[in-house]
Amino acid sequence: MKFLNGGWLVKDGYDVKYAANVYTANIEEGKLTLFCPFGVPIHNAGQTLDGGIMTIEVTSPRPDIITTRLVNFEEDRSHDPEFNLNISNPEVSIEDGEDAWVFTSGRLSLRIAKGESIDFQYLYDGKEIARSGWRAKALVTDPEGQIHVSEQMNLGVGEKIYGLGERFTNFIKNGQTVDIWNEDGGTGTEQAYKNIPFYLSNRNYGLFVNTPGKVSFEIGSEKVSRVQFSVPEQEMSYSVIGGEDLKAILNTYTDLTGKPPLVPDWSYGLWLSTSFTTDYDENTVMQFVDGMAERNIPLSVFHFDCRWMKELEWCNFEWDEDKFPDPEGMLAKLHERGLKVCVWINSYIGQKSPLFKEGAAKGYFIKRTNGQVWQWDKWQAGMAIVDFTNPEAVRWYQDKLKALMAQGVDCFKTDFGERIPVDDVVYYDGSDPQLMHNYYTYLYNKAVYDVIAEVKGEDQAILFARSATVGGQQFPVHWGGDCSSNYPSMAESLRAGLSFGMSGFGYWSHDIAGFEDKPSPDLYKRWTQFGLLSSHSRYHGSNEYKVPWLYGEEAVEVAREFTELKLKLVPYLKRMSEETHATGVPMMRAMVLEFPKDPACEDLDTQYMLGDDLLVAPVFSEDGTARFYVPDAGGDQAGKSWKNLLTGEMYEPGKWYTEQFDYHTLPVLVRPGSDPLAE
């Protein structure tokens, strides 16, 4: 949210009150509370009247995390949804010095200056990593009368900001306005399916705004030397997280918000989808499966998209009997071929679905303020939305999934979850609709993940999810949404996946060859290489089948070669998954995450590390040219060359390379001293 008019004025219709200084403070066990007048410092009793104060509470939920809560008016928040955080109540120290209060948790300290101006200085091992100073903490009233609490952190020379969820815009967030608000906008806009109010700075700190509601970030986009963030509420809590490097900060952040779990071994193989609106039946499915086997392309999972159910009845959780007269028999055939089965679902129930009347009668759907079921026609005619704040609705929904798993379904693609209404809405538990908009996806995916874990076992639980919020990393895997079939969209997908990994999520996938349109054979082969060198790999599309033989014989060869390569890498990927589970560091990671001291890696978003030891640079051009950078491995491997896993060619570190590659090769470089294929 931008409220300034240049450096000195405020936009018309806005009112801004800045917290001036700390007038008085209270120290309790584990908490420092500050009382800060708006406008100017208080010098006499008369100035305590009619001005208001900002109350600031400083606490620590875990070592190396300091949380600041800015409050205007205290409100009853007992019905507000909130993130499930892992609070350990660490020992903290609070010093009341002559010039400042110093609050310390672990190796992170917050120094709060006394005097005529507010100054919050964050130090890790005594070194400044972040700072919030003059005119940073504010209460803003917008033209509609809505109160916003706003805060700013200094943005230093050369400082770069990463993360904020799966974002398709520039990988470096400097200069961007980012609203944390889940939307179904495809991959070609500033909208995002997975918005996470957490960012990383190359100054070695992370910042997490603890609200499931809307957070507006201005990253050097209003005050160019500051990161501003605000919420349309009477209070805001944010946490600064310190660490030795970006990996350590991710570890601490996911200690707080949840670790990504391990995923089943079979999930690393190739997933093949029927695609979205394509026409298919049991015969089509078996032709695809047999076609892959006849061409010696290993297949691990077959996915049924929307049309396993009758049109206009999504979701009824029943197989279309005209196309699938014997679903149990068909699923048994797929299992006999060594395949797992995934089926598409969402949390919307069309009015034509046989489940609509049942859900409405029992109060299982989100309602309007007049008590009627909330409905609209965008997606399915007259559709309702399952209310996951109702425990009975959760059990009802899960029972439908249990019936499918009893037939032989192994996992679910949890589509949608972003278009959650906020106006004229009532939830079963009284939750604030504004705060539920983003949080809904957490309840939705948790309900599905939990029932899979219950029926199949925790070691077999996995989703293919599109929407997410904080904590959603505990319910993998997520994929990138509706991308187009062209190179710019392929590149924007990678940027988004790298940002997602910088936001606490360990696994990520995307629609190989693009969701919209029909890809060229060239793009199909290049995206196949990229897709099968991602943590999870799925062919999927909108109105076009994505089986390789439709794109030429060489596409078949490329699909076979890179699927076989992926399977050879499974032991290595499993080891990397254990690291992801233990630390929160993603399997697909931005170069800056692995090589934070190399300035050349800070901006790189067209290549990545797949685990510790594999550098991957997808080819994004029809002429097969790839431009990539090779960093120095450091340590006892400093100065040593990297080897291309596919060609054996050696590459010296610290250099840029521009080379052409055929469809059977690309830059897949092995870190010196390692051998991912030998595990």
Pick out its properties.
38 strands; 11 helices; TIM Barrel; globular; Immunoglobulin-like; alpha+beta; seven-stranded parallel beta sheet; 21% helix; 679 residues; single chain
How does this structure look, described?
The mean pLDDT is 97. The chain is globular and about 85 Å long. Helices cover 21% and strands 25% of the residues. The protein contains 11 helices and 38 strands. The protein folds into 3 domains: 254 residues, Immunoglobulin-like (Sandwich); 255 residues, Glycosidases (TIM Barrel, Alpha-Beta Barrel), CATH 3.20.20.80; 92 residues, Immunoglobulin-like (Sandwich). The longest helix is centred in the middle third of the chain and has 24 residues. The protein is of the alpha+beta class and 679 residues long.
